[in-house]
Amino acid sequence: MPTLSRLQKYTIIAVGTVSGAGLFYYNVYGKGEEVAHVANSWTTDFVPSVTWDSNWDRRDPKSLVKPMKKVTEEAQNKYNEQLEQHKAKTTRHLVLIRHGQYNLKGKNDAERYLTELGRRQADYTGKRLAELALPFSLIVRSTMTRAQETSKIIEKSLSDVPTEDDILLMEGAPIPPEPPIRHWKSEWQYFQDGPRIEAAFRKHFHRASPHQTKDSYTLLVCHANVIRYFVCRALQFPPEAWLRLSLKHASITWISIHPSGNVSLRCFGDSGHMPPEAITTNQ
Questions:
Q1: pTM value?
Q2: CA separation for the pair 205, 218 (Å, rounded)
Q3: Average pLDDT, the chain
Q4: Residue 91: phi, psi to the nearest 5?
Q5: What total number of domains does the chain contain?
């Protein structure tokens, strides 16, 4: 019986699986003709229930360049050059902030101003953002009172960052949730608010321009329903799942949109920068 050399010892390959880590052993014996085949998770016949749409923002280079009429070497080279010109090269980071606690007894927007606690929450968040030292290039604010007040407090900690207002970011009912809410809400509100909130998503969520030379960081100060809907849309989750997510007041949500069109949720509703007694959700 032949003896094993040092290079013919038993080898252990750890392969990650959906249910956990599985250990597969095979014996590299003799000349190795009988080595077992180990299937990685991405080589199995698993069929995902939902596939990722890489052209969700309609900015995939292949959707921006006119297809070739005739496939020749010259046409192919020109086509490839145009594809390269339309490729994003940097990452867009969107940091979404929910407004602070506000006066729930207000009968109109002007009366739904921040409470004293809401102002403190905004201040905590502003200081946290300053500690992160991200190179914010723009702060975009909802035009509603509580978002405007929250942003202006945050802006004290982020000096010299330009601001702009966006009416599309106002609070609303984006889409009928599933499971349904317990209290009745008329369909016209979803019919009215949904297209506006979807327009806000399409305006702010997309991969970087091909001309962008470095990663960008944009701060959006808006509302819980808007942020929850944005997260579902960006991650290609069912948008009607938005109400299953919960957000603390003045919390931080961070989404990154990569050049490939892939999207990463870096954090959702982070409120760890506040003391426990300052953390609230609905009040």
A1: 0.83
A2: 11
A3: 88
A4: -105, 140
A5: 3
Torsion, Cα 190 196 198 202, to 10 degrees, reads: 180
SS3 9: coil
**Which CATH number fits the domain that encloses residue 160?**
3.40.50.1240
96, 253 in Cβ contact below 8 A?
yes
Reference 228, options 96, 129, 121, 55; nearest CA is 96
Calculate Rg over the CA atoms of the chain: 25
What is the pLDDT, as a whole number, of residue 7? Answer: 45
Burial degree of 49 (CB within 10 A; 0-12, 13-18, 19+):
exposed
Question: HSE of 48 in the Cβ direction (CA atoms, 13 Å)?
Answer: 8
Residues 83 and 19 in one domain: no
Beta-bridged to residue 166, according to DSSP, are 142
33 shares its domain with 159: no
Statement: residue 205 has pLDDT above 90: yes
| 283 in any annotated domain | no
